[in-house]
User: Fold these one by one.
Assistant:
Number 1:
Amino acid sequence: MRKLVILIVLSIVCSLLIGSIESVDTSKFKTCKDSHFCKRNRVSHEVGVVNEMKVKQSFNVVEGSVKLVKEENTIYLDLQEQTQNSNVLTMKLQVYEGGIIRMRAQEKEALSNKQRYHVQDVLLDSIKTVPIQWKQEPSKQSNTFSFKHGDKECCYVLVQLVPFKLDVYVMNELAITTNNDNLFHFEPISEKPQPQEKKPVEENKETTEENNNENNNNNNNNNHDEENQAVSTEGYWEERFGSHQDTKPNGPMSIGMDFTFVGSSHVYGIPEHTTRLSLKSTTGNGINEQPYRLYNLDVFEYEIDKTMALYGHVPLMISHDTKKTVGVFWLNAAETFVDIEDVTTPVSPSKKTHWISESGIVDVFYLTGPSPSTIFKQYAYLTGTTALPQMFSLGYHQCKWNYKSEDDVKQVDNGFDENHIPYDVIWLDIEHTDGKRYFTWDNNNFPTPADMQNVIASKHRKMVTIVDPHIKRDNNYYIHSEATSKGYYIKNKDGNDYDGWCWPGSSSYLDFTNPEIRKWWATQFGYDKYKGSTENLYIWNDMNEPSVFNGPEVSMHKDAKHYGGFEHRDVHNLYGYYYHMATADGLVQRNPDQNDRPFVLSRAFFAGSQRIGAIWTGDNSAQWSHLEISNPMLLSMNLAGITFSGADVGGFFGNPDAELVTRWYQAGAFQPFFRGHAHLDSRRREPWLFDEPHTSIIREAIVKRYTYLPLWYTTFYQNTLNGAPVMRPLWVQYPKESGLFDLDDVYLIGDSLLVKPVTQQACKTMKVILPGKSVNEIWYDVDTEKPINSGVIEIDTPLEKIPVYQRGGSIIPKKERVRRSTHQMKDDPYTIRIALDTSKSAQGQLYIDDEHSFDYKNGKFLYKQFTFKDNVLSYTDASNNSANYKSNVTIEKIVILGVEKPHSITCNVAGHEKLSFEYDSNLSKLTIRKPDLSVDTDFIIKLN
Amino acid sequence: MMKLILYFCLAIACLAQQVLSLSPTYGVGPEELEYYKEAKYFNCLRSNVQIPFSQVNDDFCDCPDGTDEPGTSACSSIGRFYCQNSGHKGDFIYSSFVNDGVCDCCDGSDEYQLKIKCKNNCKEIGEESRKKQNQAIEAYENGLQKKKQMEEEGTRVFNEKTEEITRLRKEIDPITQEIKELEVLVEQKKSEREVENKRLLDEKENKDKETADSKPNVDEQQKETEENKEVVGEGVEQPEIQTSELLDAISKGKDDINNNNNDNNNEDEDEDDNSTNSQDKIGRTTIVDQNNDFLNEDNNEDLDQFQKILKSFKSVKNSIYNFILPILPNRFVSLKDMDLGGLESELSKKRESLKEKENEIEKIDKMLKSDLGVNNVFLPLYNKCFDLTTKEYTYTVCPYEKASQGHTSLGKFESFNNNGKTMSFENGQQCWGGPKRSLKVNMECGGDNELYDVQEPGKCEYTIKFKTPALCSEEHLKVLKLESDHSL
């Protein structure tokens, strides 16, 4: 009976969640107006709303407070609010290696019983400050001081003392201003005013005074009447949203700042949102959009072109114009809003941005670029590069909520073989568990999970199971009983274990902000603990925003309490990140040699998640618009470091028709993380369940993915060197071509392969912009191998066409023998595709290692350079002789496009002196047949 | 056995030696061997390309059709590799499976690079497979046998039912005639009784005036009225009937009569059936309202009032008594009218008999007009149900009728599709947040009629497999036997 009740309640909950498959219920989610701190901070341009909520503050540098402490490479200064003498902040300014400036500010003397949260565990331990070199020491006369952020005189920071402003100069030009619009806002921690027992009139007056004294949330302008004061104090010490109350025991402690990207009309980043890659203006000039919101949320059936928050966020914004690329990284894990406005000051055009966070300190990194590639290096320097994925995880993943039984799994696995479609991983969603108790199995349908994994592994494929952070409150469930007895759960405001509703019903949430609990969690992945798991099982972390079905905005109450006495509001955006981290640690630690790279897919993310594992764009829908937006969304994530990312192929909700699913496979095959997935209620849609020609075309798309795996793998390796996006907007490679700055339906994989997936229904022809006009770029259609000059072309797009172009001047390694899965391709020979540019040269790289272990970190890898110039192809080491891996793999074919026919081809390797070839004069295509050269050793091939 | 293993190892060693110089016929299927005879050039089998013969099986894909690499994985996207599988049957695998570390041929010939040691277990597999094949053939033959039985039974039943329907149709006319005659008689009797009743009523009115305070037993009256109401069949389901309800019941009866009068002008022989089956709800409601108004004016519990109403009924046509009489308290119906009662019960018997026969005709007609398959092979499934019990539910499929999952309807029978290989059931119980449930029954040859393997490939879209002799065919048996011969 209890079960029945639970079922009924669950079905009601589900009904609220699943409802009609139409669109998001926006009333469930806050906008700026609903978050009191945002309302207080935001400069409202809404018609009829006077900016009464906005609390004006103006900070000055305290005279004589600027000090350079050389041992700490730090400039200290004090800031004091002009009208509120007690609001004194201390600011630290530092310069990090590689042209990064850091600015931090918080109370000089905070109340001892309350504290501000400093984001932990996101920045790399390796980051180092450099000695600060004054450009101009502080002086009262000039009202400024300045210091260099690089070695050159051109690049410096100019600080104005009264009122406080901070300007970053790049190449002698003003690039980023700080507080130019006086939106620097800092609500100091305060004590809650005690209710007064006085005469009504006086009470009102007292309250007002008290607010002035203690909250500092009012300026002392006399034009605020008492009525306004009363309105504006509401929401400081508690607020409601729907039926949920936020007790806000710490009161107001929000921060705000404006940054203007000077000379820029394009800003990017702050994923994850469903807007275009080039971020839209949210205010100014009559625009009245909601600001971009950064607050990890489980948004049911999200919609396109919304600034509302989604599952994960990276508070990094990159500005690009033809002269420079710069960025701002706002290191804060609390709820954050960002307004964007086109402005004409200090120069036109400029992008003004206004950042508002509910709590935490002001912690800003200025990335001074000045090029796209340096921006990525700078950001990666701070937060790290993408963990090198195991090769298998770059293959195709087959998921469905839910594969129902071991037989079902085996049938799907066989289906791929029968239909000759490669794939690497089969996934099990929540139904595989015993009543949504993670680490357990439904004994009816999955009685022998290890055997099942072994069957999958016999074909060298892997399995992934889902493990979510909500723990079923069942005393017979070992995770729950242990977590309870150890006190590992997040506490509610009253100090009891937080109890929320999720898939298993009543659930509690482990406090992953606590390192001890992360360590404990990691041990749960031990083969002895996670019964039925094998070394071929990897993990999927879902619902880690965290999702709480009956919580405010389907998430956790902000007044829930975490490790260190911090509130959930302080650490919210880090929760999923920490969870992801603990899970990945567990996968490493489960093996005695700790030498298997983890694979963990997460839905929630934060800055630095790239170091942990893959991310996907959550629960999208089987609609053309969702296919279309997947590219901008993934490009945005790639710019913000989250390069190993993908969108559910086919669309999670609903049922795609054959055309949509086919086009989605074609797009997904050229996105970094490639997984088909579908909702419980969606029809089965394994690739062979569609009529011909669809299955053949889907097969062709997946096969293409596999042939390009050496390029993907090499590009991911290169990311570990330079932090560059794997999937790149065109402007990253062609930063001077302003016509590309808005493009987000076309992109590059690495620097060599241009992809413009078809994302429109019944698309017969399409325009493709091939960039590089300024450098006379040539592109080669990879299907026809015909050269095309840069510019706009119109192409036919029959269903089988995936518009993909190889850049002239690039050399792409491929493996064109396609197997069941990536493992079987490991020993297969390479095909090298060389596309020549106008100067008849090209170059490219190839990275090889054992495809699964950490041995590459100890030199067990090959990083090779192909260079074609003057009819000579040289293959040389690109690792500074740090690499020493033996692969025993050969090159079976070298194709050179755009070359003249040679008389003979010779090579400097014994036994391979003379190479046979074919030449196609129509395509100027040379095919060197079976050179059979080992990729382990250098060689030189000459065309004579 | 030892010998076999030794032989097997030798064979592998030989193959391993061949890695560098694979025989040009390695991996070629027996029907194409002739094209791989040593020559100067090799013509790609399915494309117009000629290559030096030395490039056959040299681990480089030259032919666009992949036919130059029958024994390697070089043409992995298109090529086929033939496993000899001595002891079992030869088979093609994708050439991408060659040397991929997974044993695909039972003789292990696909893994000659020895990334994995494959056992040659063709003998065992072959035996097993032949056993299974023989069993399958046996089962199929058995199925064919049963199919014949089904066809025979189907045809027999079809003929029987054809005869039956003809017979039934013939029987209808005399009964109809009898009914008409009876009705005339009943009418006559009624008219007589009406005259008598009128007389009695008048008498009673006079009597009542005399004994004004001798009230009738209301309880008894109510009981009787209740019973009578049930006869009318439209009664309110309340244990204690109020007078107003009684009036309602009468008024409803009257409505029905009115309807009948409107529809049938009092001539129709199916009058009673029509009155109870009357579905003209809107029309009825209107009339009821009118009558309620009329009755409400006299909303009085007194029996006098009741009698007044009865009086008012007298103005209605004669036919009203068809209805009113059975519901009137017995004391209004003179016991002298036994003759009429006998007639009426005879009439209703006849009518029932007619109805039965008509129903039977309808049923048989429906059956005979259904898609019963070639030689009526599906007819033995008519009026039968089959169950499949899984861990969660019992699925029931009644061909030509309905299907269910426990108590939940999966739909009503819609049609045979897919050349008589699929039965579809549509418009089952509405799925929450989804479509109406439906079921496709995919049929295949089997020795018995048996359901298995239920799936839900889409939300509330079910499939189930159904083994039935009806799907067995001689042609397929030939194919099976042919395959069996090949594997020897």
Number 2:
Amino acid sequence: MNLRLGGKAALAVAGIGAALLLGWLASSQGPLAPTKVTLAKVEQGPLVASTFGIGTVEARRSYAIGPTLASRVARVLVDQGDAVRAGQLLAELDPVDLVDRVASGQFAAERASSAIRAAQAQLAEAQSRAQLARASAQRYAELRAQNFVSQEASDVKQSDANAASAAMDAAAAQLAVSRRDRERALADVAGVGKLRAQARLLSPVDGVISARLVEPGTTIVAGQAVVQLIDPKSLWVKARIDQGQAGGVRVGQPAEIVLRSDPNRAYRGQVERVDWVSDAVTEERIVNVGFAARPESISVGELVEVTIRTAELSKVRSVPAAAVKRLERQDGVWQITAGRVAFKPVKFGITSLDGRSQIIEGLDAGDEVVVHSERELTQDAKVKVVPAIVRAGS
Amino acid sequence: MINLAGRDILYGWGKFVFTGLGLGLLIGVTLSMAGIYRGLVDDGRVLLQNGGADLWVVQRDTLGPYAEPSSVRDDAYRGLLGIRGVAAAGNVTYLTMQIQHARGEVRVMLVGFEPGHPGEPGYLVAGRPITRAHYEAIADLRSGLKLGERIRIRRHEYTVVGLTRRMVSSGGDPMLFVPLKDAQEVQFLKDNDALVNERARTAANPAFNRPGVPGLLEAVQASQASSHNVNVVMLRLAPQADEAVVAREIRRWKHLEAYTRSDMDEILVAKLIATSARQIFMFLVILSIVSAAIVAFIIYTMTLNKVREIAVLKLIGARNRTIAAMILQQALGLGAIGFIVGKTAATLWAPIFPKYVLLLPGDAVLGAILVLAISALASIVAIRAALRVDPATAIGG
């Protein structure tokens, strides 16, 4: 009897235990279990809005030094890294026939000078002839008036005088031509001399050679650079900021620059230029950021990360950015009432880089919102609040 | 009336309970297998749900982006946004790759997405969303990555800022979300040696390196080192828009393929995971048959072991009904213990599986009914054997 009662009791206990076990499994482990969520309070405090972009170190002023006409490089006097002064000779091009052409021009000028002298002598001769002819014609004209000579003789003299005068004009013109010849020859000399000067490549500024692009003996086309020169004082960062985040960037905002070669150090800088033209393909805005103090070891083309502080709000309400959700084109947060969640539309402002979103309207300080959830929340879903869904350190 | 079954069980409870336990573990394996099958299908569904997209726009004549490679220009979204009914568009890239972290390496599906657009993970279990346009990542819990951990993908280091859950590819690889531009670069960018070799190869090509055209080589090399492709453009539609109409519009005028959620479901479940799902389903069927057979045999042999006791019962004049009830109750009890143990075991070991195991309550109910039905069926065979026992065996031995 005892055994029977004990047996029944044991069976009953086992049955109840099994039912409880199944019930617990179904309600806490499977798909019917409430979704675990974590909560956070709306906090009031300062919020720094920043924007982040990557860029490269570039020289604001970069000079590609090359000739204006196709030529062969004769000498390159500088190498990469050399500091140069304004006006310093950097490279020389092979003048080929320029020297000969200058000499030829000078000879032509000399010849023109001789021709001028010959023309002057011819003019003097013509003048003296003309004078003589005119005096002779005058005399014959007077004699004719007293009928001492025939009309014919007087006409011949007059004709001689006219011819001599024309010869004088011709000699004068010849002299003018000779003078122009000489001027042309001199202009030629000057022009070729200028070309000769072009074959000497001079530095326009004080700077550093950033590239030596061709070696002596190379033939290059007009405009091709022989050396490249940068002004190290003009090094800055050309950063690319996503258009969606570039709205608040203004000239003068402080920035932090991290070089890839020195990732643990942030250099201070500030926005110096915001380009008017965005990159339409990559949808990025180009922002130039200058260094407050140029890092000693820096290379042009180095990758950098730039963080620009675009705004600093002193006292605003904010929630973790993970709490911001979007439901049917409406921004908002999930809030818990009586163990179930409800969507609350909220107007958000800026989001800081450490992941806090500013609340413009819709929530008050101290309100609690759902931050993390185990799965996607839906209206009226049953939830269970836990301190953290993922254990720290796991 | 004495409950013969209860008395018999209490008489030899150790044997009974351990038989039930063994049976339960077998049932647990069967239930887990059902859960693996359900999980496989559910992973596909969740993959579609997570992006929050209504339409997937991919390269024409492909089943992309999950089932086939697909490549779409990353400015195609501008034209798509202009179509009536489209509310939001997001470029997304997918790339399965191996990444290194501090404790080893892990195989992940790298997802490039644009924060604030479709394709973004819908919820986080820890951390924060991506706020920088570069070098931040959100990882799935399955990847084993931790908050704040720095991981190297190709040439850049990324910081894990957020964690998410149940974001896996159709192959079960955990997803790693990074900003789109980084993902495009990763997809395209080769290692440094390959880059240098490629440059040298281009420089050696006389078509690109002509003496009379300075700058051509640089231009060609620059054009080789950028990618403006994505794998899919995800669209979210306005509430009143008809997805079939929008999809038709995109196919006709944009010369791209557009899939609705039901199309994608069909592609993923019916095409992509069909074979592996069928494989597991087949195994599930065989396992169920084997389990049923084992349950039947155990009950049958348990009864045969009691031939002498049953003969004694018959000898003292017990009715056939009493004996049949005893065997049936024992069989059902064994089935119940087996099911409870099996369900508990399956639920407890489900989270340890590397891929998601979904134990549906419906499956559990069906499993319980099946187990009890098989137990009852098996007991019928045993009852027939018991009723044929000659009472003389009790004396004759």
Number 3:
Amino acid sequence: MTDSEILVEVRDLKVHFPIKRGVFLDRVVGHVKAVDGVDLRIPRGRTYGLVGESGCGKSTLGRALLQLTPPTGGEVRFDGVELTRLPAGKLRTMRRRMQMIFQDPMSSLDPRQNVESILTEGLQTHGIGADRDDRRRIIGETLDAVGLPRWALSRYPHEFSGGQRQRIGIARALVLGPELIVADEPVSALDVSIQAQVVNLLDKLQDDLGLTYLVIAHDLAVVKHISDVVGVMYLGALVEEASSDRLYSEPLHPYTRALMSAVPVPDPDVEDRRERILLAGDLPSPANPPSGCRFHTRCPWAQPSRCKDERPALREIGGSRVACHYAERIASGELRPHGVSAQVVRPAGEGEAPTAVSAPTEPGSYV
Amino acid sequence: MALLEVDDLSVTFARRGQRTVRAVDGVSFSVDAGQVVGLVGESGCGKSVTSLAIMGLLPKQPGLRVGGKAVFDGTDLLQLDDRSRRDIRGRDVAMIFQDPLSSLNPVIPIGLQVTEVLARHRGMKGEAAQKEAAELLDRVGIPDPRRRLKEYPHQLSGGMRQRALIAMAVACRPRLLIADEPTTALDVTIQAQILELLKELVRDSGTALVMITHDLGVVAGMCDTINVLYAGRVVEKARRRPLFREPRHPYTVGLLGSVPRLDAGRGERLVPIPGSVRDVLAWPDGCAFAPRCARRIDECVGEPPELSLTHDGRGYRCVNPAPVPGTVPPAGTAAPGATAATVAPAEAAEPGATPAPAGIAEPGATAAPAAGGVAGPVPAPREEEKP
């Protein structure tokens, strides 16, 4: 793959948040390593899916990629330009080319701005469109692209249903003509039947406009459906990266296996037949991650040597990248899984709240 | 006689100056001991209100009207006075809520919240209650239960909180358990743990379980009988396999078509249901799903369709149901003026239920060996459905 085909390249990205204690003089007592050394490359026109459970750092990675959260270390190259050291003004002009779609359209749209004003704001900031009519034309085309009617322009976010609001969010990202769109849980706040509409819309927009996506979601089925390549995160690091078909047919990392086996499939025949790998306990705290392989505390294949002391690096195995010392021996069946006792995990006030995975709600939809 | 017979349950909320809302409209289902019954639907379909009405937990406010019957073991739960309802609730009928953080009291230790149930219904006190509570926590898989008893909800992780809530619900070995979206707030790996725990409870103690969820995948692995709700009414009810193999109501077909499947190939477009839950027709004016339905015909509007029950306990509320895969639909029911309408459902049925079940089984079959030759926990063997 040549360099020009790679739109985004992330090298050893780290985002650490300090934990502060004290009343007057804040003492830094530790760091939450939300993202701790991630490498990934997103080819132009493709979709990279990022999955993981809440608190694994996937959202932080997405934000750090757009420099919405300043990274602690590492590099982010967007179309050859190193973003982490770019001055603020230059960064702002770059932002036109990379946009974000947020999870909850209700809280990411200003309730006091109508749709036209929401869409015009970005155009004005970046000086796109010669005059008002020109901007109107651009906005009109964007509305058509996301499937919203023209009368939507004069309405306010609360007047729309959840699916339509998400379309407004997509329109806001799209109106600037970006190349990269980072979609953070784009469908998880929506009802099942509406999810499919938005997923199909994202697919169609990619076909029409040649967009590059980074889709972040906890729902493996959604991510697998829209992504070309999927990266699985666990406690701030990628544990496996593979093409979406391969990830399902041949998961190599023990965590990916467990994750895949835990996702319910709406088919009784499949559900009855497949084996579940139940993980013991919860995700350890990212403020105090386990030594060595982060997953060794819950891994049914963990070995007494290496796993505890040596952090595995991502390495290439048959087209996938896996961070596991024993991936080949597990795949061949040489290593057998064993029982793991659950360890107590403290939700010590850091990480995402348990409500991060929100139920589909459409407030007032039945009134 | 089933353990719980819900008959023609309806809940309306009336407010002055606003349209009366029929949240639940003539819902009937029954649950036997050891059986898992699912209520599936999207937000606003009335599934949670149904459970709250059965439990008598709807806020007492003027304008609330609950009609119909919910007969539990011979007594109508809806007719009980508060005192006798409190006696039954927690002892014979218990509930698990969606969000464990907001349904546990944050200022009371877990232990006290568990022993409260034991003290109220089983008259246990002091050390005996503590011991029993610790055993309950241990049973639902909370490590080091003795210490957990002294801790507060915020000190536990989301999965542990949900386990504590389940421990409280099963403290008196209830005969009926209602679980309202028990895993929606949890991650998939934790969800798998909790679902396995619920399955175990049903298998070991013969508890009847009413499972309320929006996730068709959860339903496919758990429930014996499934009721699909739309706009407050049951639009389709069937046993598990027939529902997924031959969905008849266009809404069920649409739901199955709009869920991306883990075992599907890349590039298959989803078939969404157009419109949103807001685009409903009031039931008295016809089928509520008609505005979004691909199989709409003229008869859909005007008269609400009846729930037609067939011999094996399945039924659907539709005048123009999706054809059973592999059969030719009767010529008379073909939609007039809409060739697209007859084609669309065929497509819609595709990802969820293609004619040959063998075709569906294929990815699963390849998945099983891929998952490993693994001696992990094997799912509970299920009794096979009667044809």
Number 4:
Amino acid sequence: MNLDSAKPIAGSVDSTDPACALPALILLVEDEPVTRTSMAARLKRFGYRVVEAGNGREALEMARRERPELIVLDWMMPEMDGPTFCETLRRDPSMKSAYILLMTAHDQPAQIAEGLARGADDFLSKSASKEEIRARVLAGLRTSRLVRELETTAAQLASSLLLLQTKQAEMDADLQSAASFVHSLLPPQGSPLQGVALAWEYQPSLTLGGDLFDVMVIDEGHLGLYILDASGHGVAAALRSASLMTFLRAKNILQMLGSYDPEKVLFEANRLFPMTAEGEYFTLWVGQLHLPTGRLTYAAAGHPGALLCPAEGPSRWLTRATFPLGINASAEFVNDRVLLKPNDRLFLLSDGIYEVPSPSGALWGRERFQGVIDAGRQRSLSETLAACFSEARQWQQAQHFPDDAAVMGLAVTEGLEESSHG
Amino acid sequence: MTITQRAVKEATVLDLKGDLTYSNRAAFKSAVEQVKNAGCRHLIINLEHVRFMDSSGLGLLALLSQTFKVQQAQVSLLKPQSYVREIMSLANIPKMISIYETEGDALAVRAA
């Protein structure tokens, strides 16, 4: 069996880059023709491809053009000597990692130090044996390949990162535009109708929130109001919320049900918005305020409720235990009623405003929230809302809430009866 | 949240520790899925060491009760802390899933 017949060149096994079909390319820089020819012949016998340059200047051009895996370089040359070639090449960013083997006739420590300092990677004595030359070239190629792989990987990473950043920026812009759309759905602050003042604060946990609320004029005598909370977070929750909000529009409800009767609205919503396969659902609080009398009719579906803060006396929660929407097809929702008087305030809120943990894990809670509302009677509606948010933030010692936090405040600014008659 | 599974008589108990919230839903779902696929007829969720539950957590319990109902299997809740009990009550969860104070009570009802 003749193994050599398949591999006539002894060094061919060493010389082939496993990653590419061609043998490694070496640039040989040597001004002395006889030395150059014999070295080139030796390297070729090892199985490498060799390109030759007679001086430093020529070599620079060739290095940039051919991008050799290894440069074998003579120290002493006219026009540009070896170390100067190293320095010049290293200034070129694309050549920073080229592997340079510097040949020298007299390998004194001081000279070696100078060569390394000026940019060479290793040394090769001109009197080196065939085995040493072969070993140093192999070692150099190993390093050179590793460096190239690193460079390729780094370049791929950089382009992947750029791609990701571009995609992320597109998504952020999309989210921002969706968020500003959702914001545009919320009621304008101020006075939706004479005799009623409205203010709200809203901080979604992510850019897009799943809590939405509205106040709308149903007809001359009625104001409709609601707050909804989608379980879950982010885009999916926001989309579901927006669809429920569309359902809750005055025009739609009046067309479907003939009135904005809270228990009927909840009954219908419970039918139309079943819990998703992921277990996501809504809670909803709906109210209807009869302006001439100040009578508020309301019903809740699993919603923690609204807080009534009368001009005098303690505040109280307007809710009862009921199923959230879509959890029980035969759930029943019942209207409750309360009379609003001048200077009474009504707050619709999502649980995200008081389910706020302190760094030790204790929740801010409904009672503390209620305390801020009670203490805010002397302050304006918007100041009271601002106080709720700032105290909740202080409690958790962080700016952003873990869940969407929304509070909408309504105040009866004058006698509803008087304003509606006059 | 950590979830530990153990068998007690004819039931399987999941001992929950931590918060049952939106961010822990995957862990809870996979634990329940595992128990369900094993053919469990009575699942007891031990809430003794659950300090907080958000709306997603409530949804998970509601979903759990629905899927077990379809399979004619039973779900029970065990020893919720007062806050968790309060928010479960607001969402009417006790009308869907029975709540017990001891494991023995939960097991006894099933046997009866």
